[in-house]
Amino acid sequence: MMNSELDTTRIPRHIAIIMDGNGRWATNQGLDRTFGHKAGLDTVKKITSECARLGVDFLTLYTFSTENWNRPAYEVEALMGLVLNFIEMELFTDNNVKFRMIGDLGRLPEAVQKKIHYMEDLTSVNTGMTLVVAMSYSARWEITKAVNDIVAEGLPLPITEEQICQHMETRFMPDPDLLIRTGGELRISNYLLWQIAYSELYFCDTFWPDFDEQELHRAIASFQSRQRRFGKTEAQVENNE
Hints:
- The structure is a single chain.
- The chain is of the alpha/beta class and 241 residues long.
- Helices cover 42% and strands 14% of the residues.
- The protein is built from nine helices and six strands.
- Helix 1 (22-28) packs across helix 2 (33-54).
């Protein structure tokens, strides 16, 4: 249910999440790390449904970084299998959610790539929230690719911020209003570095498999308690209001 303290008129338009703690959650229970990823998938379902219900326009989930390719092969294979299962879920149709994926998708197994394109096409007619999955993604890779694409197109120098934005993987959506990281770590881990320049950051100790609707509400309530100034003074913001 809706947290009574939330202001329904100030729900973040775009929430980005670093879903951290799956492996540690499983290890703490004496389980293989892959069980944590399976449990984390259930959390994805809950949080996606709740964000859609609250009126969030975009939810971006950091699922697999370019650095994660260095993990043990069995764990990478298990993660790819989970991605296939996730893409087949009824979550999108039940919640009127569009599906998009960003990242270096050419590195993914062909079966995963086919499923991605299928679900993007299938859900393109949905009119609700867009769920964006960052897969085989890193911010430095994204920025480097954007600059190389601009150079390859022969655009005149100097390169502008607007040109870079137009060549980013995320060019179809606004920058995140709120970035949430679960699992107790206090770092960004190469995630949406360009886009979170003025995002509000929220860190919690809860491992991702234990992150529920109430935890989400706490993060949004924290966001709503802050004044976003975008480089202006407090007085300037208040006068504009």
